């Protein structure tokens, strides 16, 4: 039953996606914007079930045109289109250039409003029929598997303690540098998000159309910040923002890659002198990584202007800069040969240009590399490249003044694929595997960011720009490392902040325990007791040990008659009697001593 219901839910989701796409096409047509290549997948799939190609049994120019248009669309539900698509991908550029030029058949596209309206009506009917079937199945009792959605997870108290400790340290650094906190909605208008992330735009989560605004879950915190600045006419801001974002990615849970995860951003908006705020962002990263003490790291830096100049010097057409940049960005995960192949076969870069790019992206260093590139015969003739190198030279000077130059690596392979970057880009990488138990785990990048001077202007009616630079800390990867250390027994955490446990050695002391708890709470002391009326003494002491509660107030009949109570040190098991009226002051004194010992490293 559960399996059939899951299949039905999947069909409803797929049918809903199709209806939303058709409605969007209809709305676009009604606004006079045309159909924007709205292809009739049903007719194309039906045609390709009988023929190998669009115009029959021979590949032709219309096949190439349709393949380009379908590249960004979802046709995964159409068997014969997928088969044809795989055939088209197998052709080389030389073979494609020899295809005959036939006339494109009329059946490919929706070419009238009436046809599109009919198609919407038909598909909506199918969707309603599926939903009615779901209601029928829901009428009886259902069995299903309890689990979190793919790419998400729950967090137990130990894991949340680790997370909160990490975030506290990060926020301390952010506030030390004068950052203010903001928050934005978890979902945005879809138009706000689209067109900002390059090839990663396909990972945006679209929300179901409720008959109102077309919405998507936020992909990151940077684009919402730009929208916030433009909407509120803000020209200067130093802000931090810690919140969940959502990506329809293939999750890798053990490496800290999820579909729902936290981002932790620090950004500086405003017109300032070159590289001054940029250098401070790098300083912020080093302070955070030093505070977390997660391992040895290096901060890679590069510049988008230098990358564009490098592509120009190597013979890459200007309209291919962004897509080539996205491919170079994969060098941290793939070998050069795979990246080179993608550049040539998928991005249209010539083999000679790809080889010249390969010579540059293998370079990394510091000031000496800057001087080498300033003298480079090819780069020195390209204005963008020279501007980028000069900016990196200034950045390194400022990093030296901040005392972090030894942590900086000028690396020409660093690209960062997001389209909105315009200047310096950087990424923090752990240089050594993290030892967890008896195993070593490679973590990779744990922070990244850069300058994006044109993003805010995209949302302003007058295209008014607000230059910005920022960094995002990869807290999920940091959490994953620390959680693995916890599981391996390399670290321990205390999930409760309780300092005092009020216990009773005999029966019928609930009222007295509650009075003492109230006194301690009113004095600001973190306190708890058993919720049982007559708990066993052994169970109370075991609770203290298991939860690392340092002190216990032990009540006894003879002690109360004498006007005293016992204070027990849970670790040493030493007990002292103190006057009942002095209990609060004595507890505060002992807590202060415990905190002082912890600060001094005493046990």
TrEMBL record:
Domain named Aminoacyl-transfer RNA synthetases class-II family profile: which ranges?
Answer: 151-482
EC numbers for this chain: 6.1.1.21
What keyword terms does UniProt attach to this protein?
Aminoacyl-tRNA synthetase, ATP-binding, Ligase, Nucleotide-binding, Protein biosynthesis, RNA-binding
In Gene Ontology terms, what is a biological process of this protein? histidyl-tRNA aminoacylation
Query: Which transformation does this protein catalyse, written as a reaction?
Result: tRNA(His) + L-histidine + ATP = L-histidyl-tRNA(His) + AMP + diphosphate + H(+)
Record carries keyword Aminoacyl-tRNA synthetase:
yes
Q: Which domain of life is it from?
A: Eukaryota
Cited SMART domains:
WHEP-TRS
Keyword Ligase belongs to the record: yes
The family database entries (SUPFAM superfamilies) matched by this protein are listed as: Class II aaRS ABD-related (SSF52954), Class II aaRS and biotin synthetases (SSF55681), GST C-terminal domain-like (SSF47616)
Leading EC class: ligase
Q: Name one GO molecular function term.
A: RNA binding
A GO cellular-component term linked to this record: cytosol
Q: Which InterPro entries match?
A: aa-tRNA-synth_II (IPR006195), aa-tRNA-synth_II/BPL/LPL (IPR045864), Anticodon-bd (IPR004154), Anticodon-bd_dom_sf (IPR036621), Glutathione-S-Trfase_C_sf (IPR036282), His-tRNA-ligase (IPR015807), HisRS-like_core (IPR041715), HisRS_anticodon (IPR033656)
One matching Pfam family: HGTP_anticodon
Similarity remark: Belongs to the class-II aminoacyl-tRNA synthetase family.
Looking up NCBIfam families in the UniProt record yields: hisS
Q: What is this protein called?
A: histidine--tRNA ligase
Question: Taxonomically, what lineage is the organism?
Answer: Eukaryota, Metazoa, Ecdysozoa, Arthropoda, Hexapoda
Gene that this polypeptide is encoded by: LOC114251068
């Amino acid at each position: 039953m559960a399996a059939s219901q899951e299949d039905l839910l999947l069909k409803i989701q797929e049918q809903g996606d199709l209806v939303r796409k058709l409605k969007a096409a209809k709305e676009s047509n009604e606004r006079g914007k045309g159909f924007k290549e709205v292809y009739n997948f049903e007719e194309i799939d039906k045609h390709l079930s009988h023929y190998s190609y669009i115009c029959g049994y021979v590949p032709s120019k219309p096949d190439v045109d349709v393949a380009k248009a379908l590249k960004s669309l979802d046709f995964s539900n159409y068997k014969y289109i997928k088969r044809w698509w795989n055939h088209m991908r197998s052709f080389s550029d030389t073979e494609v250039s020899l295809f005959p030029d036939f006339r494109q058949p009329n059946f490919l596209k929706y070419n009238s409003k009436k046809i599109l309206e009919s198609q919407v009506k038909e598909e909506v009917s199918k969707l309603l029929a599926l939903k009615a079937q779901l209601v029928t199945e829901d009428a009886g009792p259902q069995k299903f598997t309890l689990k979190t959605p793919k790419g998400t997870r729950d967090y137990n108290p130990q894991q949340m303690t680790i997370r909160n400790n990490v975030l506290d340290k990060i926020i301390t650094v952010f506030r030390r540098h004068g950052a203010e906190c903001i928050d934005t909605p978890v979902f945005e208008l879809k138009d706000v998000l689209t067109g900002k992330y390059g090839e990663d735009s396909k990972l945006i989560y679209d929300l179901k159309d409720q008959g109102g605004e077309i919405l998507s879950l936020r992909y990151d915190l940077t684009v919402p910040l730009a929208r916030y600045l433009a909407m509120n006419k803000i020209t200067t801001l130093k802000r931090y923002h810690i919140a969940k974002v959502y990506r329809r990615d293939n999750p890798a849970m053990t490496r800290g890659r999820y579909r729902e995860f936290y981002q932790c951003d620090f950004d500086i908006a405003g017109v300032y002198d070159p590289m001054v705020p940029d250098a401070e962002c790098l300083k912020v990263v080093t302070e955070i990584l030093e505070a977390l003490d997660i391992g040895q790291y290096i901060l890679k830096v590069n510049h988008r202007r230098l990358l564009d100049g490098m592509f120009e010097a190597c013979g890459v057409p200007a309209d291919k800069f962004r897509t080539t940049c996205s491919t170079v960005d994969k060098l941290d995960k793939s070998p050069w040969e795979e990246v080179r192949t993608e550049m040539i076969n998928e991005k249209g870069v010539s083999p000679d240009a790809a080889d010249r790019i390969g010579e540059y992206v293998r370079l990394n260093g510091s000031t000496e590399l800057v001087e080498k590139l300033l003298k480079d015969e090819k780069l020195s003739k390209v204005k963008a490249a020279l501007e980028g190198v000069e900016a990196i030279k200034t950045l390194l000077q400022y990093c030296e003044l901040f005392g972090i130059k030894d942590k900086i690596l000028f690396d020409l392979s660093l690209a960062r694929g997001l389209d909105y970057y315009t200047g310096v880009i950087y990424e923090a990488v752990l240089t050594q595997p993290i030892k967890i138990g008896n195993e070593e785990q490679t973590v990779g990048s744990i922070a990244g960011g850069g300058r994006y001077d044109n993003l805010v202007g995209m949302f302003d009616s007058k295209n008014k720009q607000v230059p910005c630079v920022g960094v995002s800390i990869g807290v999920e990867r940091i959490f994953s490392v620390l959680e693995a250390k916890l599981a391996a027994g390399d670290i321990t955490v205390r999930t409760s902040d309780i300092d005092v446990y009020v216990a009773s050695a005999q029966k019928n002391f609930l009222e007295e325990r509650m009075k003492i708890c109230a006194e301690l709470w009113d004095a600001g002391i973190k306190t708890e007791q058993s919720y049982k009326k007559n708990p066993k003494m052994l169970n109370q002491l075991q609770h203290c040990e298991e939860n690392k509660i340092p002190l216990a107030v032990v009540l006894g009949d003879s002690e109360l008659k004498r006007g005293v109570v016992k204070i027990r040190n849970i670790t040493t098991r030493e007990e002292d009697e103190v006057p009942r009226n002095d209990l609060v002051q004595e507890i505060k004194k002992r807590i202060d001593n415990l905190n002082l010992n912890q600060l001094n490293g005493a046990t």
